[in-house]
Design brief:
By secondary structure, the protein is an all-beta fold. Helix content is about 0%, strand content about 55%. The strands form 2 sheets. Strands 2, 4, 5, 6, 9, 10 and 11 form a 7-stranded mixed sheet that branches. Strand 4 and strand 5 form a beta hairpin. The chain is globular and about 45 Å long.
């Protein structure tokens, strides 16, 4: 059974940085994709960044391009989301999600979910 455990959320001032981490365990294949989703209050869950493990293909939402970077530590099966230039509109619960196969945009196609971590950006 695949498990995803997130860490690294918190409170930061506008313009600051945070790094989120997602430790993935229980995988039996590298045919996997990991996405970082966020859900602000009253809004739908959206993919902000994701990575297909077998190809290293990466996707970023337009709203985070140039500010967020997704990386993977192969040895530790951990995916990081480096967030710079944070703004109050980035405030949301962030979730790490995984699925077999390639990265897709929509959360309903992901089988595995972490518990979520809150990111709050003050102005």
């Amino acid at each position: 059974q695949v498990q995803l455990v997130e860490s690294g959320g918190g409170l930061v001032q506008a313009g600051g940085s945070l790094r989120l981490s997602c430790a993935v365990s229980g995988l039996t294949s590298s045919n996997y994709a990991t996405g970082w989703f966020r859900q602000a209050r009253g809004k739908e869950r959206e993919l902000v960044a994701g990575l297909t493990w077998s190809t290293d293909a990466i996707h970023y939402a337009d709203s985070v391009k140039g500010r967020f970077t997704i990386t993977r530590d192969n040895a530790k099966n951990t995916v990081h989301l480096h967030m710079n230039g944070l703004a109050p509109e980035d405030t949301a619960a962030f979730y790490c999600a995984g699925r077999a196969g390639a990265l897709v945009l929509f959360p309903r196609f992901y089988e595995d979910w972490g518990q979520g971590t809150q990111v709050t950006v003050s102005s």
